[in-house]
Amino acid sequence: MLTASPLIASPHLFGGPVANLLAAGGLTKRAFLDWFETFHQSDDTISSPDQAFDVLDFEPAARKALPPAHFGYLATGVDDDGTVRANREGYSRLQIRSRRLVDVENIDMSVRVFGATWSSPIMISPVSSQKAFHPEGDIAVARAARAKDHLQILSTAATSSIEDVMAARDGAVWQQLYPTNVWEVGRGIVKRAEKAGSPAIVLTVDLQEGSNRETLFRSQTVDKRDCSACHSSSYTGYARGRPKAGSGGFAQYAERKPMFDGLDLSKVTATHPASMNWEFVKRLRDTVTVKLLLKGIVTREDAQMAVEQGMDGLIVSNHGGRAEESLRPTIESLPEVIEGVAGKIPVIVDGGIRRGTDIFKALALGATAVGIGRPEAWGLAAFGQPGVETVLEILRRELKTIMRQAGTVSVDKITRSHVTRPF
Ligand SMILES: Cc1cc2nc3c(=O)[nH]c(=O)nc-3n(C[C@H](O)[C@H](O)[C@H](O)COP(=O)(O)O)c2cc1C
Question: 226-248 b/e with 16+ CB inside 10 Å = b?
Answer without folding.
Answer: eeeebbbeebbebbbbbeeeeee
